[in-house]
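Section 5.1 Outputs to date
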Amino acid sequence: MSQRLAMLAVALVTTLAAPARAQITLPPPPAAAAKDEQGPTTIDAERLDGVGEIEMTARGNAEFKQGDMTVFGDYLKYNRELGWIDAHDGVRLQLGVDRFFGPRLRYNTLDDTGNFETPRFLIQRDQIARGNAEEVNFLGKDLYLMKRATYTTCEPGRNDWQLDAEELELNYDTQEGKAKKPKLKFFDTTVLSAPFAFFPLENSRKSGLLSPYYAHSNTRGLEIGIPYYWNIAPEYDYTLTPVYMTKRGLLLKNEGRYINPSFRGEARVEFMPGDTELQRQRYGVSWQHMQSFSNGFGLNVDYNKVSDDRYFVDLTSQVRQTSIGVLQQDAYVTKGGQLFAGLGYSSMFRVQKFQTLQDPNAPITPPYQRVPQINFSTGKNDIGGLVDASVPFEYVRFSHPTMVEGSRYSSMPTIASPHLAPGWFFTPRAGMRFVNYSLTNNTLPGQELSPHAAIPWMSVDSGLVFDRDTSWFGQSLTQTLEPRLYYVRVPYHNQDNIPIFDTGRADFTFAQLFTENRFAGGDRFGDANQLTAALTTRFLQNNGIEAFRASV
């Protein structure tokens, strides 16, 4: 025993006297029991004094480490009983991913309180932030109160925008920031001041200021936007963005969103009280809404309107918006269900209008408006185990300010007899296309007012499916080889006397090769007598997900 004590005494004397770096590991003090277990405490420095006593000091590149907290400094003093650390001269504090740098720190390891004089800080959480303060007070874990502070989320070296505040509270427990007497600066110019402000500290939904943005153009000048987000409730939120344009004035952007198990949507309203260049008010409105009712009804709304033809050209920087020529104003109600004996049906009532934004240098023809459109379709599958049948009807009243107007009644009864089996399919189909018109305004001299057509058609779709097991980059896959033949026959019918309201050539796609009509819309049914051959190969994962497909 005496020999062991002698060796320990020699070790302590050597530790305290030698100029080489010293390190000691301390057990947690009794008072630490009130705090969650944080592991051992280690102190490393060129010189340690007071080892074994309640209070000890470390000098020369000192480092104090406890859990996820580390303190660096030229001088450290630590009281084991009270948990206080005093550090000065080149102090650096690490609290998890948060960094603080300054001349003097006083910090209590038992309750995570203390203060840091004139520090710089770098916080690397979901939203990276940096800045400096006259003083930072630590009020507990993840809660910082800063005096006369600056705050920015810009990249280092780019202070495009900066928040200055008399007091700045960063609460990473609630993920919310609070600022007292804040001033929002854009390139060192104050663009907004207020008695207080709230803002989120992460990318999740929190009420407060969002990151400002700026742009510049010849039509708007310098543009600065400062969004404020209000998290009203889990199913509702609202964003107000005042946008100042040096050549146009103030534009107020409002966006509200809502969601419910049976409906969802969003509304946007933009308002400029006075365009300084045009000397008048300007506005834009957009509303999208979708809703399902328990009785099988559905509602969809897509309404868009602006004050004038040049609204997007003058007041937006997004290329997608500046190229808009037609704004849709569309609303429709749907209803589906069963009639009787397995006979299903679907129906729709629709009103569709448009606002056409004209450019005098490149005028466009406004599209027809559907006022209204009524669809009803009924049908039944597997009749007698052999036949599927469907009968769709459509009525549309087409309106236009300068072109021929009228109503279109159409139907296309269809029967099919699908034969499906593992490795092959064979589906003959046949139908009749009926269409009838009642033309009214803006008709041409001698134009037939009630043109009509009845066009029969038939098609046969068939194919084989071969498969084999294979592997691709070490992954087991199933490869298929699928030859397909499709034949369609539609006799020629002169349709020159039929107007064109909503019809044009269908986009050329692989799927369009296997349809009866080469036109999209209800005014034309193209004649055809053609055979299409195709070959497709697919690579399927074990769960059935398609990894790759190629077709010719």
